[in-house]
Amino acid sequence: MIRTKIRKEPMNNLNLSDVVEADLRETIKCDQCDLNRICEPVQIGEGQFDMVSGFLERQIEVPRGEYLFRRGEPAAAVYAVCAGSFKLMLTDGEGRERIVGYRIAGELIGTDVFHGGCRCVNAQALEPSRVCIIDYRALSHLGERVPAVQRRIMKMISDEVRQEQRAAMWFMGRKSAEELLAAFLLNMAERHREHGFSDQAFRLCMNRDEIGNYLGLAKETVSRLFIRFGRQGFVDSRGKHIRLTDAAGLRRMLGETGCVPCES
Fold first, then answer.
1. What is the mean pLDDT of the chain?
2. Nearest 5°: phi and psi at 24?
3. Cβ neighbours of residue 79 closer than 8 Å, sequence gap 6 or more
4. Is 6-168 in CATH node 2.60.120.10?
5. pTM of the full predicted structure?
6. Residue 53: what pLDDT?
7. What is the CATH number of domain 172-253?
8. C-alpha–C-alpha distance, residues 234 and 29, integer Å
């Protein structure tokens, strides 16, 4: 369970841009968040229902290293990352943790709630983070009675599936370590752009060891590749701070024509 200080203010009275803390590198605006399609008021009869006050329970801070939830816990809510970042992990048969995904500001965590049951992965904060919590079960019950809400839920689910497919496309068929890292950087750039951040200069939330864990590469290999990419003029990396100096060159390495993976 999370041991964090819960903010008591109603979400619709909070201006996220006014509560950014010094150790939170990026804070998402509400209109650039994947949860926005749920938070907007919905017309019911002659009036509007405030989705935020109705279902957004609270906003919580998650310290670096804390778990938002663990695999096997009951899934009853979906979370939107409004600041910070998280890694998603599974434990293999030998007891080693394997990173299977990342979530940055503006993205959703806990979408396994769409399928009911229990959490499928562990979600751990990579840095001081903040999330909005929405009661998905209560939202679903309303959706059964109000078609407009049901459509929003279905849109949220389909968008999440599409996002996962697009991320998978970056890595499809990539075999060499160079291709894997290039695909990773381009995917992160795309995700930052989609949520209103720069896709040329951004801060990676994970260290070299975590990147290697995710890509199936040794930490030393990842470090050498960043040095090589820098010498080749593809990236300028200083710790976790990355600037893509030749994104087109990275795409050529992957056989891309300069376009990001298309949506179906």
1. 76
2. -100, 115
3. 68, 108, 109, 110, 131, 132, 133, 134
4. yes
5. 0.73
6. 54
7. 1.10.10.10
8. 30
